[in-house]
Design a protein that fits this description.
The chain has 121 residues and is mainly beta. The chain contains no helices and eleven strands.
Length: 121
């Protein structure tokens, strides 16, 4: 079984920063792309940033220049550094990973449980 666990969410002032972490664990053979998504009430879950196994990154336009995604392959962990946070970014953030598990021949997309980010004064 493979699990993804997010951490680092919480309350931050407008213009402040947070660093989210997501650690994958279990019978992992390899992890390809990892990413962060966010979902506002009544909206579809949307991609924030993604990163490939070799470090190639992609960002949604609203977060370019403010957010940075990175990963530590030895720890099976992906990070999201969020700077200059805005009140409208008070939403749930979710981690995603494309994983090939031991004993399997097909990759599967795993999701974390989500972590709440609140941007408020």
């Amino acid at each position: 079984q493979v699990q993804l666990v997010e951490s680092g969410g919480g309350l931050v002032q407008p213009g402040g920063s947070l660093r989210l972490s997501c650690a994958a664990s279990g019978r992992i053979s390899s992890i390809n792309a990892m990413g962060w998504y966010r979902q506002a009430p009544g909206k579809q879950r949307e991609l924030v940033a993604s990163i490939t196994s070799d470090g190639t990154t992609n960002y949604a336009d609203p977060v370019k220049g403010r957010f940075t995604i990175s990963r530590d392959n030895a720890k099976n962990t992906v990070y999201l550094q969020m700077n200059s946070l805005k009140p409208e970014e008070t939403v749930d953030y979710y981690c995603d990973a494309d994983v090939l598990a031991y004993g399997r021949t097909v990759r599967y997309n795993y999701w974390g449980q989500g972590t709440q980010v609140t941007v408020s004064s």
